[in-house]
Amino acid sequence: MTSPEIASLSWGQMKVKGSNTTYKDCKVWPGGSRTWDWRETGTEVPSSTVEYLKKHGIDVRVLQTEQAVKEYNALVAQGVRVGGVFHSTC
């Protein structure tokens, strides 16, 4: 499975290739995407989460949304299986 490209990003709206949904905030991963309710987890990435992922060999990047989308799509274009959590109003 490949990671879906983020087709567009604007304030409060994100479109993911292969999905008919317009997201405000979303999670994407190889093979899919879904709405992300940031009120469940907050918008900050806890250092414990970053440490856990790195301990298991997973590269982690915490970036401002526009930069994160560019980085994510660049990795997708290279065929890298990548996931992300995006908040379109930050």
Automatic annotation (TrEMBL):
Protein origin, superkingdom: Eukaryota
Output one GO BP term.
positive regulation of transcription by RNA polymerase II
The UniProt entry's GO CC annotations, sorted and at most eight, read: cytoplasm
Q: Which InterPro entries match?
A: MTH938-like_sf, NDUFAF3/AAMDC
* Matching Pfam families: DUF498
Protein name per Swiss-Prot or TrEMBL: Adiposis associated Mth938 domain containing
Source organism (scientific name): Macaca nemestrina (Pig-tailed macaque)
Designated gene of the protein: AAMDC
